[in-house]
Design goal:
It is a single chain. Helices cover about 35% and strands about 20% of the residues. It is α/β, with parallel strands linked by helices and about 280 residues long. The longest helix is centred in the N-terminal third of the chain and has 25 residues.
Length: about 280
């Protein structure tokens, strides 16, 4: 990618509440000149809307089992409601954001890998053209599932559900992001005893996945971290409910989990000085 290497941020739907400072932080970082790419979830909102329709929902390995009705709900609620809410909030805070889904500009192309999950796409290709244009114009892309169907996908639906963590990991890898930050509803990755793990290597993440210590919604985050580490030196997982968690993460002052293949002293964490200069 020709533009400056972005910071990719995944905002978990579970963290977004009235007292959350994440969107303020996004605007502050944009004003400091950092190119941001934001991917958001909002799975709890999808579940809530499905419930209103009397449709139960289930998860396997952190991924939503997606029938046709759930797929429509993902597009309507994440790509519509949640995306518009977030973009409107950022713009009213003085930021410059543009909402899009993985379908726009064929940003994310997916293919069904496990038919048992229904219309869940696993990402097979990323097309960053539209993203680059948005970043070059000085906007923050706010990206929601669903994703486009790859040319080889034969399912009879217009698009596929794809987990937000997976989108974030693939976008970080495709843009050689300077870092990938997951804001979620827990402090970070915990070990079997429940203690927070501050620093992990890719190898350690793989064994925590294999042993089942990383479970549920943390599985796609851990897998996305491994994807991102191909080009992105640093992945952070932090509690997005803590005030200014995002600014803290960018500044290297966060209390969550850092996953990196290299030893990262604070002075080497990208944009440390930029984050502290305002
Ligand atoms: N080893 C672990 N350490 C920490 N959390 C874990 C671990 N294993 C499983 N989890 C679960 O992962 C959850 C976070 O993923 P979850 O999908 O619920 O949130 P999110 O991705 O931030 O939000 P959304 O899916 O709406 O985007 C935690 O709330 C926790 O229950
Ligand atoms: Mg999740």
């Amino acid at each position: 990618m020709e533009t400056k290497r972005p910071i990719v941020v995944k905002i978990g739907g579970s963290t977004l509440g009235s007292h959350d400072t994440t969107l303020e932080d996004v605007v502050t970082l944009q004003k400091r000149g950092l190119p941001l790419v934001v991917v958001h979830g909002g799975g709890n909102r999808v579940t809530e809307w499905l419930k209103r329709q009397g449709t139960p929902t289930s998860f396997v390995g952190g991924l939503r089992v997606t029938d046709e009705r759930s797929l429509e709900m993902v597009a309507a609620v994440l790509g519509g409601l949640v995306n518009a809410d977030l973009v409107a909030a950022v713009n009213s805070l003085g930021g410059r954001a543009i909402g899009m889904t993985g379908v726009d500009g064929n940003l994310i192309e997916g293919k069904i890998e496990n038919a048992g999950l229904g219309y869940v796409g696993r990402i097979v290709k990323v097309n960053t053209k539209a993203l680059e244009a948005i970043l070059a114009a000085g906007f923050i892309p706010f990206i929601a599932p669903p994703c486009a169907r790859s040319a080889e996908e034969t399912a009879n639906v217009p698009y596929l559900n794809v987990n937000g963590d997976e989108i974030a990991g693939e976008l970080a890898a495709a843009t050689s992001a300077q870092s990938l930050i997951f804001l979620t509803d827990v402090e970070g990755i915990r070990d079997r005893q429940g203690s927070l793990l501050h620093k992990l290597t890719a190898g350690e993440v793989k064994s925590l996945l294999a042993s089942g210590v990383i479970a549920g919604g943390m599985i796609p985050k851990a897998e996305a971290a491994l994807t991102a580490l191909n080009t992105t030196p640093l992945v952070q997982i932090a509690n997005g409910r803590l005030p200014h968690a995002l600014i803290g993460a960018v500044a290297g002052e966060m209390a969550g989990t850092i996953i990196s293949t290299i030893q990262v002293p604070s002075s080497m964490i990208p944009n440390w000085s930029v984050a502290h200069s305002v």
